[in-house]
Amino acid sequence: MFQKKFGSKKMWLAVAALLCGLASSSTAAGLPPKGQAEHVVVVVWDGMRPDFVTPRFTPNLFALASRGVFFKNHHAAYISSTEVNGTAIATGTHPERSGIYANNDFRPVLGWLGPNATEGLDSVRRADFLTGGQYLLVPTVAEIIQQAGFPTVVAGAKPVVFLHDRSARRTKGAAKDSVLLYKGQTLPKSVLDSLVKVNDDKAFPTNSSVPNKDIDAWTTKALTHGLWKKGVPKYSVLWLSDPDATQHSKGVYADEAIAAIANCDKLLGDVLRALEDKKVLAKTDLFVASDHGFSTIRKGPDVMEALKKAKFKACRKFEDPEPGEVLVVGHGGSTSLYVWEQDAKVIRDLVAFLQGSDFAGVIFSRLPIEGTFPMEQGKISATNVTPDVVFSMRWSDERNEHGAPGLVYSDTGSRGAGTHASLSRYDMNNTLVVAGPDFKKAVVNRLPSGSIDISPTTLWILGIPQPKDSPMDGRVLTEALAAVGTPEAQPETTVINATRDLGWLRWKQYLKLTRLGATTYIDEGNGGCEMK
Questions:
Q1: What is the pLDDT, as a whole number, of residue 381?
Q2: Alpha-carbon Rg of the chain, whole angstroms?
Q3: pTM tops 0.90
Q4: Which pairing describes strands 326-330 and 360-365: parallel, antiparallel, or unpaired?
Q5: Nearest Cα to 372, choosing from 351, 357, 393?
Q6: What is the CB neighbour count within 10 angstroms for residue 431?
Q7: Using the 8-state DSSP alphabet, how is residue 224 labeled?
């Protein structure tokens, strides 16, 4: 059924032939100090899988890839969720350096009894107040560009973009002329009325739909007709809520999900027309990316209930916690466990339980425990907040009812619905297409790339150096640039394993990593128990 709906293997070979300029295995070094483009526009389709970039469903995006570069081996940061990768795109860093490792985390200084939304206004403002503006541990590319003297515009149908340019102090310099639009709210607040006006005097829709067309259309028009009215700035971001919103509800490759993707493609066309009308399209480097891929829920273990049955004191929210109580924070394809007062015995018992379960895939532990990986291996050892245990759910290549590959266990959502945040290759492989005066044309890039590479590439294009005291983890995507220099290192892929004997069973987990130069990407990971 999958092949009938999306075409055969022959079609994909034909697609590859159309994008025939296969990327060289070497990348360029010794580049000039900046690119030719005067503008950079980043458009994010939340949750877009790269196997949807086809002429049938995404004619605008496919055409853009045909005259630019399609990144076949693009990577999300783990945990493969929106706030994590929104921050990775904004900062060029892994979660261990940015401080944002999940959509929800537990920070007792912000909320004593339970998890907080990492993009939530209250959480962000409280954390910045307590840390002197260090909620994010590194600067964002919007902040860096503003400090260089150039205003920016960041517009999102989702609140994740609040993490891109969150400062409420916009009183001088380029920051004064920069605007953030996040889920119908603006900084500065005075801008909002003008955005309502360009949307035919309609306020930002408060109710989501399937597909989530109205919210995404309102945000796109606010950008193209409102925030760009007086000109396109050096740097702009547009973050759409679909296909993520629809796939969560209806599942990957459902008819509604296809319609959501088609709508995103239509809105991309609106952005391209706006740039052309303003006579800046030829001067603009465009990134079309997603924050993560997507999977289908195989079934949903209730981790809290499973732990309770195993006699752990588990909860989703603390009341008046005692030592050894376990806070369960579900992320979909991954789960975090916080043990009150970090009781070592409880942590070890939790790991042993997970290793004997039928749903855990890869286990990361704060403590060195046999059969686990340290948090550092997943790039999630954030210095400001680290759970005691994080585990990715087990996944497989099996197909859902619509023919889409990639099934995963999930702590949230219902069977057959969509989810992400695991180490499945279907969650970790996300979308990136680039086009513009600085990029090669008609190229399929097979070298590894990731969310963390968008910011350093943006800064190079604009000729703005990275902060010396906070270099980015990502790299400039030199192999995709028209200005070709000397070859760069070849990618090196390694697989690390961890095992543990459990009586007549053996727990085994793996993590596949690829390194290119100094940059590391996580490809996938999985695990489970087997008979000896």
A1: 92
A2: 22
A3: yes
A4: unpaired
A5: 351
A6: 26
A7: I
Q: Are residues 202 and 165 in the same domain?
A: yes
Q: Give buried/exposed letters for 113-149 (b at 16+ CB in 10 A, else e).
A: ebbbebbbeebbebbbeeeeeebbbbbbbbbbbbeee
Predicted local confidence at residue 421, as pLDDT: 99
Q: Is there a contact between 387 and 381 (Cβ–Cβ < 8 Å)?
A: no
CATH of the domain at 146: 3.40.720.10
Asked whether residue 448 is assigned to any structural domain, the reply reads yes
In 357-448, beta strands by DSSP E: 360-365, 373-374, 389-393, 395-399, 405-408, 418-419, 432-435, 443-445
3-class DSSP state for residue 435? strand
Residue 452, in any domain of the structure = yes
For residue 119, being part of any structural domain is answered with no
Name 521's bridge partners.
514
Examine the domain organization and report whether 151 and 167 are in the same domain. Answer: yes
DSSP 3-state of 178? coil
340: containing domain: 298-417+493-531
Residue 24: HSE in the Cβ half-sphere, 13 Å Cα cutoff: 17
Interval 162-219: pLDDT, tens: 999 999 888 889 999 999 999 999 999 999 999 999 999 999 999 989 999 999 999 9
Domain total in the chain = 2
Residue 436, both tokens: 């513009």
Q: Are residues 288 and 304 in the same domain?
A: no
